[in-house]
Amino acid sequence: MKKDIILAGVGGQGILSIAAIIGTAAIESGLHLKQAEVHGMSQRGGDVQSHLRISDKPIHSDLIPNGGADLIISVEPMESLRYIPYLSENGWLITNTKAFVNIPDYPDYGELMKTIKSFPNHIALDADEIAKDIGSPRSMNMVVLGAASTFLDLSYEKLEEGIKIIFGRKGEKIVDANLKAIKAGKEFTKQYK
Amino acid sequence: MKKLLLLGNEAIGQGALDAGLSGAYGYPGTPSTEIIEYIQRNPEAKERDVHRTWSTNEKTALESALGMSYVGKRTIITMKHVGLNVAADAYMNSALTGANGGIIVAVADDPSMHSSQNEQDSRFYAKFALMPAFEPSDQQEAYDMPRLAYEISEKYHLPVMMRLTTRLSHSRAGVLRNSILEENKMHLPEIKDQFMLLPAFARKKYKHLIAVQKDLEMESENSPFNKYIEGTDKSMGIIACGLAYNYLMENYDECNYPILKIGQYPLPKKQIQNIFNECDEILVLEEGMPLVEEMLKGFLGNLKIHGRLDGTLDRDGELNPMKVRKTLGLPKLSSKDIPELVSGRPPALCVGCPHTDSYKALTEAMKEYGKGHVFSDIGCYTLGYLSPHNAIDTCVDMGASISMAIGASDAGFFPAIATIGDSTFGHSGITGLLDAVIQKSNIVIVILDNDITAMTGMQDSQVNGKIEQICEGVGVEKEHIRIINPLSRYHEENVKVFKEEIAYTGVSVVIPRRPCIHVFAKRKK
Predict the structure, then answer these.
(1) Quick check: A99 contacting B, CB < 8 Å?
(2) Domain that holds residue A96
(3) Of B271, B286, B278, B272, which Cα lies nearest the Cα of B231?
(4) What's domain B4-211's superfamily in CATH?
(5) Fewer Cβ close by (within 10 Å): the C or N end of chain B?
(6) Per-residue confidence at B420, pLDDT binned at 50, 70, 90?
(7) What is the DSSP letter of A135?
(8) In B, which residues are within 8 Å of A10 by CB distance?
(9) Quick check: B257 pLDDT over 90?
(10) Is the dihedral of CA B267, B269, B271, B277 positive or negative?
(11) CATH number for the domain including A91?
């Protein structure tokens, strides 16, 4: 088993929480894992990405090579496309469709969606809207993780366990909101496929 | 035993703690910051009361660590690569005093300059100081190395460098813990005059340092972190240092070339000789500058050695699997280009950032003088160079804003403005301010006080609550230390304060004071 995943978004959108939960689930499943993340200057409202690699064999590089990623999981639509060079031929693009506009030259939204949908293997969902609908507006990132959950080759229960471990400190309410969010994302993918 | 999921930096922190650490010193700097942060929040460190607060700068950190080593305790000093320049005076001399309790100088380099002003390679400093160095290739080695590093440090009475680079510092993997060693008991150095560098002593110590090099080389020959891996295809041998080993192995299921994996310096000469004799060509893969390649090649250049110097590998920037793959002559994996409509999203000051309001007021006050008057410094506020702020003109090194403004003013340039953050002011601004006061320089120093070391992720600022007293103590006239509140509703007032201080002939300090919005949000919770 091997999954190479690019996580993408804008600084502050919560991709490191997604990484932490997948990472915890992977370790709990006895798998090897490497996860390179971005700290420092680029976090300030800029594009951020994380390379997450899971395997049942030892992993060498902390970085995924171009053309090697099985999945791009993005919490922002334009950012999902920035990492297309990493995507393997049969890889999947899973992205939130809610644009985060903090630059003057953000592309035309229609064109953006058209480009995303030109990839045959894609899941596009308005995770912000779904998170709002289920009453957990701050759990958009977990909705996206839920939408990607069936592609990870990790058991769903382990991901839930990951959420409990990572958010446990913040109290039951926050854990529950995130569990609800990941479930909503998973349901979306079930119907989309 | 269960594995811990740790960043490379955290693995060093845990490794040092488990190897009997008594004190961690450092100044925050990407990509090194998480070593101390990890120790700070570690419950065992708290229980043991391991020293773990930030220092004012890298030099004071290293000197404090020397003091802890002097009384026999194990210590670690952490910094980013350019921080070692600040600590260099203490660092170079620490190779002569050596260590009593073990010392690890942990330096994180930032090739490709993700968050830095240059990509200097700290291994050159280790070689320069004749100090042994460790370079982990993965998180487990980052955890394991401190233990051996302390052993060597105490065996040879020498500080030891641990060199990391961004990708290992900020990448997580599972790490298995070892047993936990007791901390050293306090004891003064047994070597008479060990920490006394009067020239007569220093000369002897330097001879000694040179003499132990052959022993350190022997340690490297026998190190578990230097490994010769046999291969059947001797047309090429590969020397891979630190992380570069991973990028090499990523590209092969099985590599047929002999490989020498390097994780401990000085270089193991016998092993290098071995691969050199055995193979027709030598490829050196190293993250950072071509240190090993240059040593092997020599000044006149041995044509059999390849790497970053002869262009076999890119000369600058960090390595990755693709660069190494290309160098090995392997076919490219098929991949698509970035769709054209994707635009850049550079980092920016956060919405609501106090610096935005400070810059807005300063820029308006400066309108009549044209561009090119604002010397700035290292921190979030360096982003004020970018649109829409376009508020500053220089960024060189910690503290340079004040000293550069002095120099420009000395040349008759007016107005000369310096903008510097509160933490940077504490780190390296106070000495510049003293210069300004002594010569009565005609400058305005803007100390952007957001209450925290923000860019590196919210570490305490050493000068918190003391800035006015420091300025006054250094000799700035009280009526020219002005505190303003950088909020848009005070914009007109703030512009006026800037204008008044620009008009004053002498040293003025304006302190726009408002907490970083992230600190503010945290406190509100």
Answers:
(1) no
(2) 2-192
(3) B278
(4) Thiamin diphosphate (ThDP)-binding fold, Pyr/PP domains (3.40.50.970)
(5) C
(6) very high
(7) T
(8) 345
(9) yes
(10) positive
(11) 3.40.920.10
| Subunit contact A39:B334, Cβ cutoff 8 A | no
Tens of pLDDT, residue by residue over B154-205, are: 999 999 999 999 999 999 999 999 999 999 999 999 988 999 999 999 999 9
ipTM: 0.93
Share of chain B above pLDDT 90, in %: 94
Residues 40-69 of A with CB under 8 A from B: 40-47, 51, 59-68
Centre a 10 Å sphere on the Cβ of residue B442 and count the other Cβ atoms it contains. Answer: 21
Structure tokens of A183? Answer: 């479930």
Q: What is the DSSP string of B194-206?
A: TT---HHHHHHHH
Q: Are the beta carbons of B34 and A39 separated by less than 8 Å? A: yes
Residues in B closer than 8 angstroms to A59, CB to CB, are 173
Q: What is the DSSP letter of B134?
A: E
Q: Which residue has the tokens 């301010």?
A: B433
At what angle are helices B430-438 and B400-410 packed, to 10 degrees? 20
How close B188 comes to chain A (CA, Å)?
Answer: 40
Contact at CB, B343 and A107, closer than 8 angstroms: yes
Domain B354-524, second-level architecture: 3-Layer(aba) Sandwich (3.40)
Domain B227-327 has CATH 3.40.50.920: yes
* Record: contact B5-A108, CB cut-off 8 A: no
Of A45, A47, A85, the CB nearest to B335: A85
Tokens of B152: 């060597």
Q: How confident is the model at residue A193 (pLDDT cuts 50, 70, 90)?
A: low
Q: How far apart are alpha carbons B368 and A112 in whole angstroms?
A: 43
B322, B344, B348 ranked by CB distance to A66: nearest: B322
What does the DSSP 8-state code read for residue B3?
Answer: P
Pairing outcome for strands B103-109 and B160-165: parallel
255-314 of B, contacting A, C-beta below 8 A: none
pLDDT, tens digit (0-9, with 9 covering 90-100), for B267-294: 999 999 999 999 999 999 999 999 999 9
Taking CB atoms and an 8 Å limit, are A60 and B455 in contact across chains?
Answer: no
**pLDDT confidence tier of residue A81, bands split at 50, 70 and 90:** very high
Query: Residue A52: pLDDT above 80?
Result: yes
In the numeric block, the tokens 């009361």 are attached to: B49
Q: What is the pLDDT of residues B431-481, one digit of tens each?
A: 999 999 999 999 999 999 999 999 898 899 999 999 999 999 999 999 999
Report how far Cα B78 is from the mean position of its chain's Cα atoms. 7
d(CA B470, CA A25): 50
